[in-house]
Structure formats: C-alpha cells, structure tokens
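[[Local backbone shapes]]
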Amino acid sequence: MRLKNYNEDLVLETVKIVLKDRPEIRATRSFMLDVAAYALNRIPPKYITSERGFTREFVQGSNGNGDDGEKLINVIELITLVNRAVEVVARRRTEALPARMPRCSSPTSTTCRTSSAGWWTPPAAHRS
C-alpha cells in the first residue's frame, strides 16, 4: 500500500450519500471532486500506509475505541460540512457561468482576460 489520507475515501463516500438526497444538483465527477476538496481542506488528514492501518481506522471509526456519542457528532459534523461544500461549490459554479462572465473585446483588454486554460483572470488592480 502507499501513503493514503483515510479521510479522502470517507469524504468521497459522504459526498455520494449527500448528493443522492439532492436531485436538483447535477453531480458530475468534477463537481463531486470540488465538493470533496472543499471538505478535505477543512478537516485534519489521517494518513495510513498499510491495510492494517486502514483496518484500524475503519474499526475505530465504526465501533472501536472512543465514545459512540462523540462518533455520532463527528459523522453529523462531516455531513453538515459536505452539505455546506455542496452549497458553496454550486453557488460558485452558478456565479461563474460563461454567460455571466464579461466579454473581452481583445486578448489585451483591460476589463477582463481569459487564460488559455479557460480560467477567468480578473484585471490587475493597478496598471502603470
């Protein structure tokens, strides 16, 4: 096995579960990965390097060491975080629709720019 953040799989499964209850959201792979990245950037990583480490994390997370009430709170917090991530990513994607982006009159326009990758780059605040 290689170095792996155990929370990645946990968050991705939670994203799938949350999105099943949100039929109004078009759950593309890109959308799901954006939601997962948002959530993962807000929780501490849990790195494992072996099947044994994976099994230990799984057992401790489901019925092993620790207070069951605390685990329930952690699950609820994760579901809440993923729901917030869905809202944020959906809102950002709606705000960044190409139809709403300013049209550029030329590649050197001072009002907007689009890079070759298609990402919108805001104009510089100060120009000489």
